[in-house]
Specification:
The complex is a heterodimer of chains A (749) and B (169). Chain A is of the alpha+beta class and 749 residues long. The N terminus of chain A is likely disordered. The longest helix of chain A is centred in the N-terminal third of the chain and has 29 residues. A 7-stranded mixed beta sheet of chain A has the order 12-13-10-20-17-18-19, sandwiched between helices. A 5-stranded mixed beta sheet of chain A has the order 15-23-22-21-16, with helices on both faces. A 4-stranded mixed beta sheet of chain A has the order 24-25-26-27. Helices cover 38% and strands 15% of the residues of chain B. In chain B, helix 3 packs across helix 6. The chains are: A alpha+beta (749), B alpha+beta (169). At the A-B interface, helix 6, helix 7 and helix 17 of A face helix 1, helix 3, helix 4, helix 5 and helix 6 of B. The complex binds FE2/S2 (inorganic) cluster (FES) (2 copies). One FE2/S2 (inorganic) cluster sits at the interface of chains B and A.
């Protein structure tokens, strides 16, 4: 068989305008002409990933002197696309208006791994900068020939090359390359621009997508339509049971929706859905279909969750051990112990996930909001029983996802429904599907013991964390017959040193994971700053209490226990931004029963450095906690776009306030019961604190993530501010009025 | 049962065919292919689907299409023209001042909730030309943003109020 004959027939995507709606059309067609002579296939016509060792994979120069940057990271509303364009335009000496990105697509864009852990800038910036610099080098060599000069003698302005000091003669990138490929290997050895010559990196360049988004010209994935498609909805119990239990169909009356014209019931195993030509008919059919489910009552219920977690069998694993804990505690003047409890919390994007699929006998196109399209392709190929290269996955932007929400589940559901219906399907989850079947941020029990010497030096620290890991198999796949399974243990599923003591200089430290059997609990996955809010809620309160016991200012106490210059820098930045001053008198209650307090916290996710200060008001009569102001500082190395990072910090702090005050997944023994915004409330306008974002710019350092790195610190700061106001340590969040009143009553306040 | 209905959307009367109990949202999104009002919860809890019905912010996800017959529906697409009519401007601007203010504040993250934010904010500014911070928060309290962009929306509404006041003088 010749090489070309084996190339898959794959869908090509085209946009059709029809009555203002965006139609996404595609047809199955041979990858390219049958002529074996043609060496370079048209971009997008063959299954990816494209070869990362080729410059053409990363960059294309167009005849009109503009460029397209191909990046494998998706835009999640964090503005990282703008930042990566800044990086490329900087090296290429292009203006921002001259460069754009392409849709993330397994046929088109390179595989850079998922858009996780604030990775877009951290992993993306070096790759993009090197590719752009290397492309610039190649362009300048061609220009030197054209202009009869040497590369060293050339200057570039907006993609137009001329001899130094002269505007003319000149030649543009577009004229040098046109639409033609570079055909160059990507060595990764180009010299990058020096910091003093930056025009774009480090500047708060405005995002360019906003005008289209505020005027309803932008298409979210929810707006895409496929020709001749059906509308699909899944049919599931309202609220998941234990992960391992899934949900079993006991009986199904298909005739119960016979009155809805065109509605069809589709099923594979216990995966159940409906499709209909009209969306409202699909919605009604999903609600009216008579089906009874078996969901064995195997959950502990959210009220007894933490007791059950501690009583359960767990796998013990030491995450970090340094020095000698016993001798560290022996030499201490003060020690503090605390046990704290964190709830399950949900991603719940503002728009429930949506996906479109056209599955044919020999190929499939799936458009979804996966943070990792290559990983989604792998799971879809298995589920559809198609070879990997026959499945094309494209990214469609939805609402902010904050980690692994139900996007892969939605992609699978759309694909299964399309395969079963033998028609293109648009699948939209309902609110209760997203709330009830999320892969939640796991609940946590943390036990901390820490000690300090009389002169305020931390000398021993121990953290034990109980939690389960992440679920590997998404709901649609599981219901259709794939057995539930967990991710193998990995550091990010357990205690994070940078949110549990590791920011400080502690000679004797031990961090221990107690991994619970995840199949007995709710589905789990990474939720923005995974588990860190729980770690810092426990750990930073203990550090704070040590300072108080030693009659030291909590900021100064932290400061003298930090050697690392960048940790100290970010702490100083937030303290000065908030105007931190050592408190000289106890807080006083006003006539309305309100006391005020201020707290500080330190911690981050895996990279970067985060610090926060919180101001809170506690109404001791109603138990209502109001966070009035949050200050968050981040040191993420070289910040490409400080405007974006300030916006990110704002979102992080508001979300942390929401998670500390309001958010908790509830469930009984059978299933999850928090199924919408009423039963799973989040922070609202009237409760929103003032926010002060602080960016510590370090252009000489490598860029690290900035999408989640102040949240842990803010969780600690809020808990400490509550104590500062009330003299009471909360051991469980969210700080709901009833929980606050109970805690105050217990301490006789 | 599907029937033919005439509804007035953005000053244009359209004949649509839908079951009378169909929520207005699905008619706007699927039949008229509008991208402003969009699904968020279907339960009147979030504000994602908001439109103006005779100038009053209304949740299209729980409003039967039949109930807006004889009324005037304005979506985000028609908001600049609605603003021009309110203020007797000779022609519709490219954007309502609040839309521009949100860009100036670089307020958006994912931006999905902004349909509702802009519709509600525009309704507020039409009623109260100079709302206080507390009044803005109260008016907007039924609109959720999962990305946590509330602080910048608050600033943008105040900024838009100032711009509108400046245009008047
Ligand atoms: S979609 Fe209508 S209020 Fe949420
Ligand atoms: S900007 Fe994403 S929900 Fe508001």
């Amino acid at each position: 068989m010749s090489r070309t004959a084996r190339l898959p027939a794959l869908p090509r995507r085209e946009f059709l305008k029809a009555g203002g709606a965006l139609l996404v059309g595609f047809q199955l067609q041979p990858a390219f002409g049958t002529s074996p002579a043609r060496k370079t296939p048209e971009r997008g016509s063959v299954a990816g990933p494209p070869d990362p060792k080729q410059i053409d994979t990363w960059l294309a120069i167009h005849a009109d002197n503009t460029a397209t940057l191909y990046i494998g990271f998706v835009e999640l509303g964090q503005g990282s696309t703008t930042a990566l364009l800044q990086v490329a335009a900087e090296e290429l000496d292009l203006d921002m208006e001259q460069i754009r990105t392409a849709t993330v697509d397994t046929n088109v864009t390179p595989n850079q791994g998922g858009t996780y852990s604030s990775a877009a800038i951290q992993r993306g910036r070096p790759q993009v900068a090197l590719a752009a610099a290397e492309a610039r080098g190649a362009l300048l060599e061609r220009a030197a020939q054209r202009l009869g000069s040497s590369v060293e003698q050339l200057q570039v302005n907006k993609g137009r090359v001329s001899v130094l000091g002269h505007e003319r003669p000149s030649v543009s990138y577009g004229e040098l390359v046109g639409e033609k490929p570079f055909g160059l290997a990507f060595s990764g050895t180009a010299k990058l621009k020096s910091i003093d010559r930056y025009r774009l990196v480090g500047k708060p360049i405005a995002r360019r997508d906003m005008a289209a988004k505020v005027t309803a010209r932008h298409s979210y994935i929810q707006h895409l339509r496929l020709p001749r498609m059906l509308h699909g909805r899944v049919v599931r119990p309202r609220g998941q049971a234990a992960y391992g239990a899934g949900a079993k169909i006991l009986s199904l009356e298909e005739s119960s929706i016979a009155h809805i014209a065109g509605a069809r019931v589709l099923r594979r195993g216990d995966f159940l859905g409906v499709v209909a030509p009209r969306e409202w008919d699909a919605v009604r059919a999903a609600q009216q279909l008579k089906v009874s489910w078996e969901q064995p009552p195997k959950l502990p219920g959210s009220d007894s969750l933490h007791e059950a977690m501690q009583a359960d069998k767990s796998q013990e694993q030491v995450a970090l051990e340094r020095g000698n804990l016993a001798s560290g505690f022996t030499g201490a003047a003060r020690s503090v112990v605390a046990k704290c409890y964190g709830p399950y919390q949900a991603h719940v994007p503002f728009a429930p996930n949506c996906a479109l699929a056209d599955v044919r006998d020999d190929a499939a196109l799936v458009i979804c909001s996966s943070q990792d399209v290559y990983n989604a392709r792998r799971s879809l190929a298995g589920l559809l029983n198609l070879p990997l290269e026959k499945v094309r996955v494209q990214y469609g932007e939805g609402a902010g996802t904050f980690g692994h929400s139900c996007y892969d589940d939605a992609a699978q559901a759309a694909a299964l429904l399309s395969q079963l219906a033998q028609a293109p399907v648009r699948l939209q989850f309902m609110r209760w599907d997203e709330h009830g079947w999320d892969t939640y941020g796991p609940a946590h029990v943390g036990e901390v013991r820490a000690a300090a010497t009389a002169d305020g030096r931390l000398c021993a620290y121990e953290y034990h964390g109980w939690q389960h890991g992440w679920s590997l198999v998404d709901t649609s796949a599981q219901l259709s017959g794939v057995a539930a399974a967990e991710w193998p243990p990995s550091p990010v599923q357990g205690v994070n040193p940078l949110a549990a003591g590791g920011m400080y200089d502690i000679p004797n430290i031990k961090l221990v994971n107690h991994r619970l059997p995840g199949l007995n609990y709710l589905r789990g996955a990474w939720l923005r700053s995974p588990l860190d809010l729980s770690f810092c809620f426990a750990s930073e309160q203990v550090i704070d209490q040590l300072a108080r016991d030693l009659r030291m200012d909590p900021y100064q106490f932290r400061r003298i226990n930090i050697k690392d210059e960048r940790w100290r820098g970010v702490l100083d930045a937030v303290a000065s931004g908030a105007g931190w001053a050592t408190r000289t008198s106890a807080p006083r209650m006003n006539d309305a029963g309100v006391v005020r307090g201020r707290g500080i916290g330190l911690g981050t996710h895996l990279v970067s450095y985060g610090a926060a200060v919180a101001d809170v008001e506690v109404n001791v009569r109603s138990g209502v906690v109001r966070i009035t102001h949050l200050y968050g500082a981040i040191d993420a190395g070289a910040v490409v776009n400080p405007g974006n990072v300030e916006s990110q910090i704002t979102g992080q702090l508001v979300q942390t306030a929401s998670r500390l005050l309001k958010e908790e997944v509830t469930f009984d023994e059978a299933r999850v019961t928090s199924l919408d915004w009423a039963s799973y409330p989040i922070l609202r306008f009237e409760e929103c604190p003032d926010i002060t974002p602080i960016v510590v710019q370090r252009l000489d350092q490598r860029s690290t993530g900035a999408g989640e790195e102040t949240m842990a610190a803010a969780a600690g700061a809020i808990a400490n501010a509550f104590f500062d106001a009330t003299g009471v340590r909360m051991t469980r969040y969210p700080l709901t009025p009833s929980r606050v009143l109970a805690a105050l009553a217990e301490r006789g306040r | 049962m599907t029937t033919k209905l005439n509804i007035k959307v953005n000053e244009h009367v359209s004949a649509v065919s839908a079951a009378p109990d169909t929520p207005l949202l699905y008619v706007l999104a699927d039949e008229l292919a509008l991208k402003g009002p969009r699904f968020g919860c279907g339960l009147a809890q979030c504000g994602s689907c908001s439109v103006l019905v005779d100038g009053v912010e209304t949740r299209a996800c729980v409003t039967p299409v039949a109930s807006v017959q004889g009324k005037s529906v304005t979506t985000l697409e028609g908001l600049p023209a609605w603003y021009a009519r309110q203020h007797k401007l000779p022609q519709a601007p490219a954007m309502h001042p609040l839309q521009q203010a949100l860009i100036d504040e670089q307020a958006l993250q994912c931006g999905y909730c902004y349909n509702g934010m802009i519709i509600k904010g525009a309704e507020l500014l039409a009623r109260n030309a100079a709302p206080s911070d507390a009044q803005i928060r109260q008016a907007m309290n039924g609109h959720l943003c999962r990305c946590g962009t509330y602080p910048r929306i608050l600033r943008a509404i105040s900024r838009a109020a100032a711009v509108i006041a400046g245009e008047r003088t």
